Amino acid sequence: MKKLLFIMVLVMGALAVNAQKTPVKVTDLQKAITDNIAKDYVGFTIKEATKVVEKTDTTFNVVVVKGTTQETLCYDSKGKFLKKMEAKAGTAKPGPKPTKPVPAKN
Q: pTM above the 0.70 mark?
């Protein structure tokens, strides 16, 4: 019984430490966020949004897309832009276009 209680305490502690992520409907995003995207990311559309609560901090991660380009933007709880998130491993970004090979000189 003690082992079971110990395991439950460990699991609850791990859950409390990790950030809580909740999906947010695009229509429920703050006007400041949608206005910023419309102004600074012309032609992009909002694909999805997530509310992240970590301890006392709340942020919103918003994924925007335009063609094959995808960006993840981070906003604070008041809708102020914080940063553009780095691409995670396994997500490909369009790379530079290949150039024509230069013929070898003899």
A: no
